Amino acid sequence: MSSVFHGAITVSIFGQSHAPGIGVVVDGLPAGEKIDLDELQAFLTRRAPGTGSWSTPRKEADAPEILSGLADGVTCGAPLAAVIRNTNTRSKDYSNLRDIPRPGHADFTAQLKYGGWQDVAGGGHFSGRLTAPLCIAGGICKQILARRGITVGAHIAGIGGILDTAYDPVNVTAEDLLLTSKKRFPVLDDAAGEKMQAAIEQARSELDSLGGLIECGVTGLPVGLGDPMLDGMENRMARLVFAIPAVKGVEFGAGFAVAEMRGSENNDPFYYDGDTVKTRTNHAGGILGGITNGMPLVFRAAVKPTPSIARVQDSVSLSQGVDTKLEIHGRHDPCIVPRAVPCVEAAAAIAVYDALLSQQAIQQKEK
Amino acid sequence: MSSVFHGAITVSIFGQSHAPGIGVVVDGLPAGEKIDLDELQAFLTRRAPGTGSWSTPRKEADAPEILSGLADGVTCGAPLAAVIRNTNTRSKDYSNLRDIPRPGHADFTAQLKYGGWQDVAGGGHFSGRLTAPLCIAGGICKQILARRGITVGAHIAGIGGILDTAYDPVNVTAEDLLLTSKKRFPVLDDAAGEKMQAAIEQARSELDSLGGLIECGVTGLPVGLGDPMLDGMENRMARLVFAIPAVKGVEFGAGFAVAEMRGSENNDPFYYDGDTVKTRTNHAGGILGGITNGMPLVFRAAVKPTPSIARVQDSVSLSQGVDTKLEIHGRHDPCIVPRAVPCVEAAAAIAVYDALLSQQAIQQKEK
Amino acid sequence: MSSVFHGAITVSIFGQSHAPGIGVVVDGLPAGEKIDLDELQAFLTRRAPGTGSWSTPRKEADAPEILSGLADGVTCGAPLAAVIRNTNTRSKDYSNLRDIPRPGHADFTAQLKYGGWQDVAGGGHFSGRLTAPLCIAGGICKQILARRGITVGAHIAGIGGILDTAYDPVNVTAEDLLLTSKKRFPVLDDAAGEKMQAAIEQARSELDSLGGLIECGVTGLPVGLGDPMLDGMENRMARLVFAIPAVKGVEFGAGFAVAEMRGSENNDPFYYDGDTVKTRTNHAGGILGGITNGMPLVFRAAVKPTPSIARVQDSVSLSQGVDTKLEIHGRHDPCIVPRAVPCVEAAAAIAVYDALLSQQAIQQKEK
Amino acid sequence: MSSVFHGAITVSIFGQSHAPGIGVVVDGLPAGEKIDLDELQAFLTRRAPGTGSWSTPRKEADAPEILSGLADGVTCGAPLAAVIRNTNTRSKDYSNLRDIPRPGHADFTAQLKYGGWQDVAGGGHFSGRLTAPLCIAGGICKQILARRGITVGAHIAGIGGILDTAYDPVNVTAEDLLLTSKKRFPVLDDAAGEKMQAAIEQARSELDSLGGLIECGVTGLPVGLGDPMLDGMENRMARLVFAIPAVKGVEFGAGFAVAEMRGSENNDPFYYDGDTVKTRTNHAGGILGGITNGMPLVFRAAVKPTPSIARVQDSVSLSQGVDTKLEIHGRHDPCIVPRAVPCVEAAAAIAVYDALLSQQAIQQKEK
Question: Which chains does chain D touch, 3 or more C-beta pairs < 8 A?
């Protein structure tokens, strides 16, 4: 077990940063779902390195080839496999990474876990590049969900202490969630976005990097997705979102703020909006008892600052058993948060679609 | 899928608040592990309702009967099953819950998911009472981990804005983690604890409830537990911790604070402490690339305020399709955070032990 | 992993022959299914030891207590847990089994696998008694399937070379499958049954035991259950049927006879029977490409003779490292085949119901 | 769930006969295992169509490209992905298969399961071609097992009623198991093999096909692999072997013959061979209570005759709702048994290696 999600659908991710390829197999997709490959490519492009100051100039085509699972562009019931070739790999010597682990990276833990056999080039299987196959799987789920009226969207909620406008947890619409999908810098408030970009540029110029916050929303959910205890929507979502390497925290609805709230504040009162039961507030983030309640599902993920910074850092030489200094060369994103936005959407889409399929399996009889 | 954790060990939790019993089956425990039932009982007593002002006076014996899995008090390789009888159930009429869902509870979502067939008495399978079997499984894992030098502990990090002393993420010891295991009110700083209890009493007197924060630490971990992407320690831990009904957020190490940090701050520099590689800070919470790095694993969980409050609340009548008022009778914990502390330990212990067993399976050859 | 089936439903079996109890947790049952406990008891009685010459006189009440999962006799969406108390346990000394393993039993393999910690009393978790919880889970699935028009039945196909009439693989009806459910000795041809019983009595009088063959049929199946490759109906069914300790072979449709057939014989020609596509023969046993084709699903399981025989047998003393003789005392079924018939039905019912739930999850769009 | 095996290792198979590619992802392989790609190619060549009269002349290169999981030819801990390009696809019109299903094929069941969206070209995901990725995964497991002294081998046990010499279930050696790995026609008795080939040629000339029997053996197994009930070696093995499309029966040790045996015959007496406990006979096929006992593991699989025969057959037109005749064009193996031999080895190797890794996870303490 490691890079496999095994539920109603199975998502098996493979690849290393500098291996011949990376990709994904998605098993269990229903037959008959048209997959728009242009739309999928557009989604992948959102996580691709861009021209902005915040991203690395390595140009990844990231054009997946669908090896199987489609017939005439429609899912055929067979597992869908997609592969992205690693073309822009550099042949430089990475063996140093076996000796002097980069702070904040998996170099050290991988070295000990895999006994020195891990593929260190470009971070190997731990590279952020592995979120591309996650986005393939998630992008496909997003398309299928959209046809069922379920919309998944996300935006940068904050970078370096500069905050974007938050989604309205009660009234956020599908249109709101789609706002950032076309933006080069995915914020709701472009003025705040300008400040964030300036902060990123500032950090870069100081050979440093910035972390941030991503907020994700899902609308159009039926009541009843998710299961008690181990398979609640929070559990499912968290498991998927933590698959994005830099995420260090996940919170739903009011999240950590509940720690300072009273029940009378936090409880979301029910009311009828026409024939539909809604809640006047949405501190629950659309989830009660692990199960969707029909309100927008809203959560946030904390993304750590890129650990690859150009400053000289303290590390150790594992071969010599002594403390040493490390200087990381090459160019790295001073802030991966913008590129992580579609990754969070992808993780959410997989979690939601899997829960939807599971729910169809265990349909109860009407009373 | 719902109340099952299926990894190297399988934990299957069952029961409803007012059914004949609740319990758990743990499959996959290695043979030859002595289980100290008195110690297990002492652990369970930590989550039992006490005499404090913060907890409900229902006296749950919570004495599990081990139906199988032990021979002469030692695991025998067969699945371990434990059951707790529900003796103190009240025969009052709960049918109102099918009609007027309690805000903040699963009444509404369960009603729609299960088509009205759910067991509403006492919250049914969604009751906090179901954390007792989680604690049985976790308490057993804790004992086995302790014999391997791995200690799991937790404390109330905050209630109603009053904060306890935090664990030192770098130097926290097993002794520190055990400090709260004997306390009636599990905080490190008893003076802060007094204030928290006063705040709880205050909330209770105002027919209200309080949420809080729980911090958990694990020491003695080898380097190398956890796997990339979907089965990192964050993913595993989050999936287990969100099994506790009231948890709305989970963060590791610096957690959400990383969103405002720079890489130069957040990166934990490596150094040699004798023959051991350590990090000078521990913003990573002991996890790099999803894999333990030998530093203390530290995380926090946000617990929402008890939704059952005595105030009149707004809700709906599902049968009549109109808005209505709801007044919840009976006595409820005005703050479940103290009792949730051992539950978080249990969740963490299961996640860690499962990762440990998985790691033994996939031992790499030494280079 | 061991005694857990983890699919759309999860079945977790626990217990040892002489532990306080045995039982099962079934997670994932849809809410709203009435479970007739009398009918379940009647089903369990079919595997209980009877008065016939072929079965041991130990009187097992085998009356399961449903601890959870039902509300007013109807599934409520929570995991269903059932336990059977082991009342008729004998306190005799079983420690000999750790030293001198019984041929044909798991004594030797359990001793080495579990390092001597296994529960040897009465065979521990390897006892045939553990098929009782399998029958609880299967009996519940049978009831739900019956309401969907799907019938599962089985009969003794042969014992000691004496054959029963086989099901007509093309025209077998639900009524045919139910014929043996009321019989004390579950054969279609009672005359053959008499001969089988005489053969069993003969074997018993010679301190020996007999094996046999069980044939199982399922009617009323929709087209489309099962999945390609790893989750075909054969794979699913075989995994469940081999859970019955004495089964050493499973074959579907023409089974091993296909090895000597030609394609022109084995292929089942399609034809229209009214609006329904059927096959004129049914060598496929109702399964093509792992997927049900709407014809009766038919398979057979080979059951080995009871290994516990009263004759002196050759074995070893593990403590002394020498060959030795073993004489097994106590009374044992000279033939477990009759009691294994409902177990095979139970295994089949679980496999079919799980496939049915999975299929509902992955419903394709109509073309 | 469908084409995924999810245990200590996860094997996810993808592809359709005429899609761009077929392949497999194997997740969970320990790091540090050298994979000999030439040896893997040689293994795959054994299932490739040959020059014999029994096989189709389509020349599949079947040269897998390893996309990930290796670094310098050694497993690196990341998932191993391999893909085989489908180059020799023919662009002929397969749409007829949606209308007139071939008897004995999955055309009909796939049509109804997938609502007409399935990829019919060349059988799509149901093609025997999908056993190539199974052989990649199995070939890798075989290499790793061989380094641990565990040998997997198989041979044609019979075709069209002509039998090969059987393995000696007690004394079969690794050398015996390797005998057929170099043979073009994998039998032990070449004279019998000549007769089988003649029978195949005869069947072909009569526009017909033949089924057969494959026997597989595994030597060098430690005592203790496999688990009780649902995860016994029989369950695990059967689940993998039934992944080979044409298999309709699996039996272990004496198999179906146990149905006519007495306990005194079938029980395998223990004895000491030096310091090792062995059994004088091996009717158990090396498995007691689902767990390996150290004797050779022996099983047989029944393979149905190729359903694609050139004779005119009865079928139906689904579009017109009438009975019709079908004549299958193209060349097809008149007997797939020879090519299925390495597939059975592959299935067995995956099952054994997965059980070995699981066993390492759950190591008991010594008494």
Answer: A, B, C
User: Token pair of B72, please?
Assistant: 């002469």
* C74-75/C70-71 β-pairing: antiparallel
Contact D221, D146 (CB under 8 A): no
Asked whether the beta carbons of residue D74 and residue A117 sit closer than 8 angstroms, the reply is yes
| Chain C residues touching A148 at Cβ < 8 A | none
| CA gap B65, D69 in Å, rounded | 47
Cα A6 to Cα B5: distance, rounded to the nearest angstrom: 12
Indicate yes or no: CB of C115 within 8 angstroms of CB of D366: yes
Say how far apart CA B130 and CA B146 lie, in whole Å: 25
pTM beyond 0.95? yes
**Matching residue, tokens 């002509």:** D162
Q: Which residue of B has its CA nearest to C30?
A: B114
Cα A288 to Cα A290: distance, rounded to the nearest angstrom: 5
| CB–CB contact D255 C365 (8 Å) | no
Length of chain B: 367
Burial class (CB in 10 A: 0-12, 13-18, 19+), A257: middle
Amino acid at C212: G
Helices (H), chain D: 37-47, 96-99, 107-113, 131-147, 174-178, 190-205, 233-241, 263-266, 337-361
pLDDT digits (tens, 9 = 90+) for A191-247: 999 999 999 999 999 999 999 999 999 999 999 999 999 999 999 999 999 999 999
**Nearest-neighbour CA in chain B from A283: distance (Å):** 9
Contact between chains at C108 and D277 (C-beta distance less than 8 A):
yes
Give the 3-state secondary structure of chain B: CCCEEECCCEEEEEECCCCCEEEEEEECCCCCCECCHHHHHHHHHHHCCCCCCCCCCCCCCCCCEEEECEECCEECCCCEEEEEECCCCCCCCCCHHHHCCCCCCCHHHHHHHCCCCCCCHHHHHHCHHHHHHHHHHHHHHHHHHHHCCCEEEEEEEEECCEECCCCCCCCCCHHHHHHHHHCCCCCCCHHHHHHHHHHHHHHHHCCCCECEEEEEEEECCCCCCCCCHHHCHHHHHHHHHCCCCCEEEEEECCHHHHHHCEHHHHCCCEEEECCEEEECCCCCCCEECCEECCCCEEEEEEECCCCCCCCEEEEEECCCCEEEEEECCCCCCCCCHHHHHHHHHHHHHHHHHHHHHHHHHCCCCCC
Q: What residues in B contact A305, CB-CB < 8 Å?
A: 258, 261-263, 265-266
Whether residue C367 and residue A32 make contact (CB cut-off 8 A), yes or no, is yes
CB C55 within 8 A of CB C210: no
Rounded Cα gap, residues D152 and D168, in angstroms: 15
Yes or no, beta carbons of B32 and D365 under 8 Å apart: yes
> pLDDT (tens digit, 9 = 90+) per residue, A143-182?
999 999 999 999 999 999 999 999 999 999 999 999 999 9
Q: Residue C354: closest CA among chain A residues belongs to which residue?
A: A361
pLDDT tens per residue across all 367 residues of chain C: 589 999 999 999 999 999 999 999 999 999 999 999 999 999 999 998 765 655 655 455 589 999 999 999 999 999 999 999 998 665 576 778 889 999 999 999 999 999 999 999 989 999 999 999 999 999 999 999 999 999 999 999 999 999 999 999 999 999 999 999 999 999 999 999 999 999 999 999 999 999 999 999 999 999 999 999 999 999 999 999 999 999 999 999 999 999 999 999 999 999 999 999 999 999 999 999 999 999 999 999 999 999 999 999 999 999 999 999 999 987 789 999 999 999 999 999 999 999 999 987 666 565 6
Q: Which ranges constitute the DSSP H helices of A2-36? A: none
Query: Which residue type is seen at A145?
Result: L
Measured between CA atoms, how close is B28 to chain D, in angstroms?
7
